[in-house]
């Protein structure tokens, strides 16, 4: 069992496997940094700083982590290098906790928010449509009625792909085809959600328009038509980021937070890369909760983000 009872052995194994490259990258560097050293000194901390930055934790977040460890070294006077991974885990988990990364317990929706409307944003190629399909599957498995809206109408593949996911998962997809008005798709999706007493409506949106102003206007219009049916919709605006792009994911997060309010993050494709540290940096820098992470191809490999289990998988030396 994981640290929390609900976190199953299978999920933990998937998480370990998905973060294997990141874990190996960190520990191959860490073992070199502490070779021949028994205590955590300035030299070890300098090496650790470099390891975290090259693992895509990001400079600002790395500096915070190092400062926290320095304080512990000063307090405990003599810290053994063998304890370094334990201290790392504790300090990073504490940092994530401060950044509002609260652990969800299940694919549940807040009381009184029905249908719960999620608007999904993110550039093309980050795994946005796949994430929506997997999310729909998870909600459905949790006993929820789900409706999808194919409002990324600028790209034929996005509409077709979402329809395929709808068929695969067994949930209805509202689509007007390509080059149609995205806001009218969102309007119909939310309208059907209300009429059919759905639990969750997930609306896909365009990955990129010609300018930031265009994108801002388009997302604003989508929000306004949703609010004709549900005044406080969308309840969640989720940004999907590709974890394998490392620092580029930071740039995307920065750009999207300028054009619309982002309330949650899904970070995908962590299994194909050694850049797992990006989850920590993005959570810290943007103060937006990481809600889901993608650690593999399977339907169940989109996991609810559990910070303690994540940090455990990333910073526990595998035998």
From TrEMBL:
EC number annotated for this UniProt entry: 3.6.5.4
Membrane topology: Peripheral membrane protein
Gene Ontology molecular-function annotations: GTP binding; GTPase activity; signal recognition particle binding
Localization terms from the record: Cell membrane; Cytoplasm
Amino acids binding GTP: 122-129, 204-208, 268-271
Subunit annotation: Part of the signal recognition particle protein translocation system, which is composed of SRP and FtsY.
Recorded family membership: Belongs to the GTP-binding SRP family. FtsY subfamily.
Protein name: Signal recognition particle receptor FtsY
């Amino acid at each position: 069992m994981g640290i929390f009872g609900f976190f199953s052995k299978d999920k933990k194994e998937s998480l370990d496997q998905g973060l294997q490259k990141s874990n190996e990258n960190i520990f191959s560097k860490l073992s070199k940094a502490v070779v021949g050293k028994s205590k955590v000194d300035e030299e070890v901390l300098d090496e650790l700083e470099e390891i975290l930055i090259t693992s895509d934790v990001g400079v600002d977040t790395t500096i915070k982590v190092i400062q926290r460890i320095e304080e512990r070294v000063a307090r405990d006077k003599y810290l053994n290098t063998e304890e370094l991974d334990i201290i790392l885990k504790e300090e990073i988990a504490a940092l994530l906790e401060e950044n509002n990364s609260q652990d969800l317990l299940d694919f549940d929706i807040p009381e009184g928010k029905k249908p719960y409307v999620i608007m999904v944003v993110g550039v093309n190629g980050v795994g946005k449509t796949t994430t929506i399909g997997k999310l729909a599957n998870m909600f459905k498995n949790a006993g929820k009625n789900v409706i999808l809206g194919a409002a990324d109408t600028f790209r034929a593949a996005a509409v077709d792909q979402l329809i395929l996911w709808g068929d695969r998962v067994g949930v209805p997809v509202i689509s007007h085809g390509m080059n149609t008005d995205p806001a009218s798709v969102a309007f119909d999706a939310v309208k059907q959600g209300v009429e059919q007493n759905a639990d969750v409506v997930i609306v896909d949106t365009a990955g990129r328009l010609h300018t930031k102003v265009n994108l801002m206007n388009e997302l604003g219009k989508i929000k306004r038509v949703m609010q004709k049916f549900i005044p406080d919709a969308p309840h969640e605006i989720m940004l999907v980021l590709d974890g394998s792009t490392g620092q580029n994911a930071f740039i995307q997060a920065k750009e999207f937070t300028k054009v619309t309010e982002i309330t949650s993050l899904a970070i995908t494709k962590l299994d194909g890369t050694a850049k797992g540290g990006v989850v920590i940096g993005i959570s810290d820098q943007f103060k937006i909760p990481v809600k889901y992470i993608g650690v593999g191809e399977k339907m169940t490999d989109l996991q609810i983000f559990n910070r303690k289990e994540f940090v455990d998988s990333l910073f526990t030396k595998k035998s």
